[in-house]
Amino acid sequence: MLEKYRLFGMRSPRAFKGRVLKEFLEISETLRTGESTVVDLSSITERDERVGNVAKVLDQILEHFQGEADSEDLRLFLVIEEAHLWTSKDVPKEASNFLDRVVRLLRKKGVGVMLVSHKISDFDPAMRSSMNISIIFRTKYEGDLDSISRALGRDFSKTVPSLPVGYSVFHSADLGSPFVIAWRPLYSTP
């Protein structure tokens, strides 16, 4: 991605203001800083414990925003890495239902949630239907290519395996047909 700076007329990268935590602080504290906050749960190796910790954080965030007015403005953006931990067959269906419910409720309050996983098939069809935006990076996994072909058409299922680094297929129901985009590298201003 560093090579793409010139492509977008950008100068050298800078660090973002932010912090990496091993445990989640109160949501009001996190919102007050105005910085990026990463909660690193990589030291927790037990799947159920990791899902439980994320569920507690989501519950706190939901409780905080319940009393807030609905908002069209983005107040908070959450990225949940390894979202497949919520949707695997080993995890009770209540976990997946909880995640789906929280995402729907928080969306009205101006909280965006990005679920990151390795395969499209990690999400059941009901959950996929409620996702407004899909971003598909290069994959050669046949299961995903079949899903892409059914959802977006054969042309895109042929395009996805050859996408270069920094490109993806972007699809939003609000924008109509999917298209290939080049992602601008992250850039932090002082």
Q: Can you describe this structure?
A:
By secondary structure, the protein is α/β, with parallel strands linked by helices. The protein contains eight helices and seven strands. It has a three-stranded antiparallel beta sheet with strand order 5-6-7, with no helix packed on it. Helix 3 packs parallel to helix 5. The protein starts with a helix and ends in an 8-residue tail after the last strand.
CA gyration radius, whole angstroms: 18 Å
The neighbouring-strand order within the major sheet is 5-6-7
Helix content: 25-40%
From N to C, what is the helix and strand string? HEHEHEHHEHEHHEE
Quaternary structure of the protein: single chain
Distance between the termini: 20 Å
